[in-house]
Design brief:
Distance between the termini: 25 Å
Mean pLDDT: 95
Helix content: 25-40%
Radius of gyration: 17 Å
Largest sheet: 8 strands, parallel, barrel
Strand content: 15-25%
Structural class: alpha/beta
Low-confidence stretches: none
Number of strands: 9
Shape: globular
Amino acid sequence: MKDLSWLPATPVAHRGYHGPGVPENSCAAFRAAVRNGYTIELDVHATKDEVLVVFHDENLVRMTGYNKTLEDCTFAEIRTLTLGATSEKIPALADVLDFVNGRVGLLIEIKPHPRIGRLEELLCHLLDRYYGKFAVASFDPRVLAWFCRNRPSFIRGQISGGLHGKGLSAPRRFFLKNLVVALISRPDFIAYEYRNLNAWVRFVARIFRLPLLVWTIRDPGTARQCGDAGHAIIFEGFHAAKT
């Protein structure tokens, strides 16, 4: 029986507890999240030489000024870069796991990628030896279906929302937005964009008894409203109260 009790119990810091001078998905952001006792949400990509790193975008330019796709770079190449106007570097996932070491929970988002299976195998190689609380999540139901087949003990989360600007076909957007894809991904929880949360999504979560997290909350007032509605939050940009 999977224990999901830790996941909705604590606010989830989106890309770590980042802010001015503390870049998203950086070691500094993860240190701040641990200090405050927040679960950490982070994003995972694989480099050209198959090192798993923590970074959100496909392209490095927004955070580093280096206009190149991350997956076309070696780990040594990206380690020469810094995040924003700081000395922080793009961390290897292995180093983040070593640092967190089970002190807070981890919500690991697997970004869309073309070779489903290989990145997931690399991730399992790390997580099979990790003894802290963690969950894996993705927009792509095929990623979660892979874990369902190959690591059914891992906690899986289906991420969804309005999906505007994602370049999806109308049928695919419909299936994702309305969680029809849950028939494939068989999630243990749902993480849904709060601005697009509706009665249907709440019904799906309730009927299948799936914890519902909402993202990304950016102010205390919205956080209180979500808490009153019984939803756990993924947040950024403010200090979230813990229940």
